[in-house]
């Protein structure tokens, strides 16, 4: 599918690490990726990307140990693990073998950088280093990841994934201008990397998509159109801070879609009209097993305006796939292939401006026309 605009708008080389919250850590770091940006429109009409900057150790292995960056009491420290205990096949993390179950640490630490774009999303206007969101407590000592931003009424809400040995939780921030954020606390106290708040109330309540993870799933009956695995569920809240899971299932892995070995929410649902129907448009990712991380593609579903657990329309072919031509100039910096991870959407009269992370490396903006949404 061809798009009128489909380009990388922010790459690792554009990040100034002299202004990083990790500046002064005492060892050399680099930007492993500037990617997976939450997106919204600012009051002045420009767009805002809340970019995940994964800052990594240039040499994580030295003195017979592999090292992780960790926030502790307002500073950043290095933890050393004996190399013989670690599986370092993935450059982003290492697995520790001694526990008898899956335990890992990161060779990078992520923080969030607000990046202002032009109104059409094609040009960088400003990088707001003075408004960075970085770890501020032991609940996120391994970093803050993958922001999603929703505007509900005159207030903005941002969910993030906070990583620590204590828990792999979802944290919430609020703002009156989408640039100055207030920490609201932990809202999901379990591993859930894809919580997205709907951009509007339903029946006077906030709604959100969630995606709890586990390592055991029960089978659907033979002949079911669905297969077992992580699914996109729903929760409701009176205030966006306290959430109750909804009884009805949401978007489930469908046997007719190739990339549903694992699925998760991508963009906050927006109330609009596509494919001849009105509903909550949500873009989500699906993964096809391949290599270390798999092939990530972007799909879409349209949910009922009043009963969002009912899917009105969807498409088995992907809306977006990884575009190797975009990352060709960055091939020396790439460490994964075939990954597009869509995280933000803004509606225009004739199109949608869609923000994605490309190859866990850079920020991609795509102008998707309304007629691209063709239901299967």
Automatic annotation (TrEMBL):
Q: Does the keyword Plastid apply?
A: no
Keyword Glycoprotein in record: no
Which GO molecular-function terms appear in the entry?
A: glycosyltransferase activity; hydrolase activity, acting on glycosyl bonds
Cite the entry's keywords alphabetically: Glycosidase, Glycosyltransferase, Hydrolase, Transferase
Family matches, as SUPFAM superfamilies? Arabinanase/levansucrase/invertase (SSF75005)
Q: Spell out the InterPro entries in the cross-references.
A: Glyco_hydro_beta-prop_sf (IPR023296), Mannoside_phosphorylase (IPR007184)
Q: Which Pfam families match?
A: Glyco_hydro_130 (PF04041)
PANTHER family given in the database record: GLYCOSIDASE
Instruction: State the family it belongs to.
Output: Belongs to the glycosyl hydrolase 130 family.
* UniProt-recorded name of the protein: Glycosidase
């Amino acid at each position: 599918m061809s798009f009128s605009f489909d380009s990388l708008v922010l790459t690792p080389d554009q990040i100034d690490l002299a202004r990083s919250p990790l500046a002064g850590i005492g060892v050399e770091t680099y930007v492993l990726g500037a990617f997976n940006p939450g997106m919204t429109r600012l009051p002045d009409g420009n767009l805002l990307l809340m970019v995940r900057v994964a800052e990594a150790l240039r040499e994580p292995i030295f003195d017979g140990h592999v090292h992780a960056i960790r926030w502790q009491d307002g500073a950043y420290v290095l933890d050393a693990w004996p190399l013989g205990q670690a599986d370092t096949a993935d450059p982003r993390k290492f697995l520790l073998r001694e526990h008898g179950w899956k335990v890992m640490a990161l060779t990078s630490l992520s923080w969030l950088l607000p990046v202002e774009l032009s109104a059409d999303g094609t040009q960088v206007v400003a990088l707001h280093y003075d408004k960075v969101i970085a770890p501020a407590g032991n609940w996120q000592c391994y970093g803050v990841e993958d922001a999603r931003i929703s505007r509900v009424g005159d207030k903005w809400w941002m969910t993030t994934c906070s990583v620590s040995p204590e828990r792999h939780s979802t944290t919430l921030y609020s703002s009156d201008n989408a640039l100055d954020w207030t920490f609201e606390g932990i809202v999901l106290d379990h591993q859930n990397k894809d919580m997205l708040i709907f951009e509007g109330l339903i029946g006077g309540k906030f709604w959100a998509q969630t995606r709890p993870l586990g390592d055991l799933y029960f089978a659907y009956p033979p002949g079911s159109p669905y297969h077992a695995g992580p699914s996109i569920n729903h929760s409701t809240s009176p205030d966006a801070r306290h959430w109750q899971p909804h009884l009805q299932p949401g978007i489930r892995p469908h046997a007719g879609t190739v990339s549903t070995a694992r699925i998760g929410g991508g963009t906050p649902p927006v109330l609009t009209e596509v494919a001849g129907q009105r509903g909550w448009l949500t873009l989500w990712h699906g993964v096809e097993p391949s290599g270390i991380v798999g092939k990530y593609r972007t799909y879409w579903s349209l949910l009922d305006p009043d009963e969002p657990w009912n899917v009105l329309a969807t498409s088995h072919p992907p809306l977006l796939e990884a575009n190797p031509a975009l990352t060709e100039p960055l091939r020396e910096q790439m460490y994964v292939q075939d990954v597009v991870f869509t995280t933000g959407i803004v509606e225009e009269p004739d199109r949608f401006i869609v923000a994605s992370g490309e190859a866990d490396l850079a920020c991609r903006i795509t102008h998707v026309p309304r007629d691209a949404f063709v239901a299967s």
